[in-house]
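hi! just following up on the protien thing from before. the input was this:
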Amino acid sequence: MKGEQERLPPKDQLIMGVHSIQELLNHAPDKLVKVYTVQSKRSKIIDECKNKNIPISFASMDLLTKMAGSDSHQSLVAHIRGRKFLDIHEFLNEDRENSLVLMLDQIFDPQNFGALIRSAECLGAAAVVWSKNRGSDLTPVAAKSSCGATEILPLIRVSNLATTVEQFQKKGYEVVTALLDESAESAFGFSYSPKTVLVVGSEGEGVQPLICKKADRSIYLPMSGKIQSLNVAQATTALLALRAAAKDG
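and the predicted 3d structure came back as:
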């Protein structure tokens, strides 16, 4: 990188790691502005970037770590075109007869945040919604954990989740909260409405009481092992997989 004097992009326009960048090369190469790596790095990704005329810039390991805010970048950091968050009104005005939206409440761990977006994309969610005031935001760590899903799945960032719940309900969505409470309905055999918002919360706080109060139904994942809880990303993946299996069955 020309004496490492090049102006660096902001962190919210960076992704890092092999899998995240490879997924964009596979599915949305036009989003890649430039890939940063070390001089000695030779890989399929670098060759593919060159073949697709995506600029390569060389940097030190220390600079890559500074750019990404993490040392788990695997010698690869990419500048992407600015993310376009979907407006909630734009999403709700689209004609959707059957859709599941995942809403994230108070998910502060960026790795869990990214893993949840990855599961949502893999298991057929129409979008992911979260509050910019109550949880993690999209960082290079979150993008890496999502394996590129942050650049593929529609993302809706709002100010107030409770207000957003009401907006979904007015458009015919049923709001279902995931709880660690056996008074809720079991996830096994749970019948989802064609248009559903599934709300998941942090492992410590869970879904905030105001949203629980506004929700139409609640659901829990029964456990049969000795350990009676999963982390939020694992539990949500299980819930989404059960819903996808029921939908396809």
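The two ends are 53 Å apart (CA to CA).
Residues 10-80 form a domain with the 60s Ribosomal Protein L30; Chain: A; fold (CATH 3.30.1330.30).
cheers
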